[in-house]
Design brief:
Length: 377
């Protein structure tokens, strides 16, 4: 009888006749190296192309989205939805190291409340312990000057750099009153330039009713708050009751120029139609903060503080505003003082409070005769 071949034996014989068979099978039809690596390279290149395409689509889409929904641009200007620090109880300024600060609420409009902090001069801190609002109100009858502080965008009245400034000003003997505009922090409502200015005017008038006629009341604005501050002071001057002085920390000329110079606009700044897509969207929300126009209607001493390494509000905008203010007819006869902080100090946008020269700068400004100076510290 003929013996049947076992398939396994056949395979073994084939492998013996062609010892490279298994290796070729593993490598595939392309021989050694095959086509695996080129295929893998092609897949990686394809993924990169798709990623670049998606980024390009997003880049091109954003200007149209902003133009069609200008409210997005308003949110980017105000950034009131950003709390820094996030987990903060604004009812407890003590948690931020302010053990001589009272939290309370005012109602600039019916049904709309805004959160306010009043920090008394540091020399009163012992007496301030466990005191209520009526005691804090009574301290306004003292001879200590009062600073109404108007903060910038993003965060709340409890932001760290703001708290540090309150401490510095308090240590110099000033009352510091600050608040969150409508739509910020624990204040009611939604943000707008008109609403922010109205809130500032309401708090200013609330303070004036509690102060002795001889007690100086200064207005201090920072960043976006400088736009609110010049709006407020213009209103006060128009009605014949200017403040004792205006301090502008890191100011800009107007919101369009600031938006054009802001780091976030860098990727679109040279795009054809940048003004139409982005800046006109800001104007469509009635947001102007035209400090360059306001200085022509202000009649009180003005102090401008700006760090040369400020990347958020570029130094040149503060210098331009000073040049306009120093030539303003309404400011003729009033102090207009500009102080530049060199880049080497690294104060950037919000750390001018660290300057050991700040006490002297303020005392010289508030106590000096009318002059226009351009200093560096």
């Amino acid at each position: 009888m003929r013996k049947r071949n076992n398939p396994e034996d056949s395979g073994t014989l084939l492998d013996r006749r062609d010892p490279d068979l298994k290796q070729r099978d593993r490598q595939g039809p392309g021989g050694e190296g095959g086509m695996g690596k080129p295929f893998r390279r092609l897949g990686l290149v394809g993924k990169m192309k798709r990623m670049i395409l998606w980024l390009l689509v997003v880049y091109v889409s954003i200007p149209f989205i902003v133009k069609l929904c200008p409210s997005i641009q308003a949110k980017l200007v105000f950034l009131n939805f950003m709390w820094m620090p996030y987990f903060i109880d604004l009812k407890r300024p003590l948690d931020q190291g302010l053990n001589h600060t009272h939290n309370f609420y005012l109602e600039p409009e019916t049904g709309l409340k805004i959160g306010v902090w009043h920090t008394v001069p540091a020399r009163m801190w012992r007496e301030a312990q466990e005191k209520r609002g009526d005691w804090y109100d009574s301290t306004f009858s003292s001879t200590h000057s009062v600073i109404l502080y108007l903060h910038g965008n993003a965060g709340t009245r409890g932001g760290d750099h703001r708290v540090q400034l309150y401490k510095v000003l308090s240590s110099l003997g000033y009352h510091v009153v600050t608040f969150d505009y409508r739509g910020w922090g624990d204040s009611d409502g939604s943000p707008s330039e008109g609403g922010m200015t109205s809130d500032a005017l309401f708090v200013y008038d609330w303070l004036k009713r509690r102060l002795n006629d001889k007690t100086p009341l200064y207005i201090w604005g920072h960043s976006l708050g400088t736009g609110v501050a010049t709006n407020l002071v213009r209103r006060l001057c128009d009605r014949g009751s200017p403040p004792d002085a205006l301090i502008l920390e890191s100011p800009f000329t107007n919101i369009r120029e600031e938006a054009r110079s802001h780091p976030f606009s860098m990727v679109y700044r040279y795009l054809p139609g940048f003004d139409w897509f982005f800046l006109d969207a800001i104007t469509a929300n009635n947001i102007c903060f035209a400090s360059d126009e306001n200085v022509n209607h202000i009649s009180c001493p003005v102090l401008i503080l700006h760090a040369e390494d400020d990347a958020v509000v570029p130094f040149h905008l503060g210098k331009e505003l000073y040049n306009m203010a120093s030539q303003s007819k309404s400011l003729s006869g009033h102090k207009v003082h500009f102080v530049a902080f060199p880049s080497a100090l690294a104060y950037r946008h919000k750390f001018i409070y660290r300057s050991p020269e700040l006490p002297n700068i303020l005392s010289d400004f508030f106590g000096s005769a009318p002059q226009q100076t351009d200093d560096s510290t």
